[in-house]
Q: What sequence folds into this?
């Protein structure tokens, strides 16, 4: 079974990653505040790497039937950010990651939680995945709050891309056994 190509929430409309999203991805990855959440030094991401990440996002949908959605506000149509599911290797184990990055103007408004909730419903409902992980740099408290609001629990510290991260996990059995209500 594949994930939905489009996702809608109360305030967002998301669509499957495509070549037309390259400029929005570049805008996201060029924002200094966003970069500070993705790497301790906030180093700029070269254009070639942004292009490769876009191509990888498109391939991921073809290979796995799910991936990253690009989200815009339903009221204004403005690009808010990207979020989705990605198969990753974590210390030798194959996992499915819930990932998200949003423009700073969306921060503190529950936008990342809203999009991630809809994606988690896809993962555990439609796709019937057994488990999801999410990880971030230790100091990214905003991202950690999103994970915790979604019921993800801290599991352990990991090293990802040569940097110390915290890893959180949520299981489908936990998701379906508890009363679910939108955050």
A:
């Amino acid at each position: 079974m594949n994930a939905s190509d489009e996702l809608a929430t109360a305030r967002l409309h998301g669509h499957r990653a495509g070549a037309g999203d390259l400029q929005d991805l570049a805008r996201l990855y060029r924002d200094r505040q966003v970069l500070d959440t993705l790497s301790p030094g906030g180093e700029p991401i070269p254009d070639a790497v942004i292009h490769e990440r876009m191509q990888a996002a498109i391939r991921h949908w073809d290979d796995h039937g799910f991936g990253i959605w690009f989200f815009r506000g339903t009221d204004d149509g403005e690009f808010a950010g990207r979020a989705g599911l990605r198969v990753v290797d974590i210390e030798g184990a194959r996992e499915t990651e819930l990932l998200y990055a949003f423009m700073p103007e969306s921060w503190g408004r529950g936008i990342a939680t809203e999009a991630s909730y809809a994606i988690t419903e896809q993962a555990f409902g439609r796709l019937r995945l057994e488990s999801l992980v999410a990880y971030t740099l230790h100091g990214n408290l905003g991202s950690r709050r999103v994970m915790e609001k979604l019921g993800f629990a801290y599991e352990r510290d990991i090293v990802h891309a040569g940097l110390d991260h915290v890893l959180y996990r949520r299981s489908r059995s936990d998701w379906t056994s508890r009363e679910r209500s939108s955050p």
Notes: The CA atoms of residues 52 and 145 lie 29 Å apart. The longest strand covers residues 79-90. The first helix runs from residue 22 to 30.
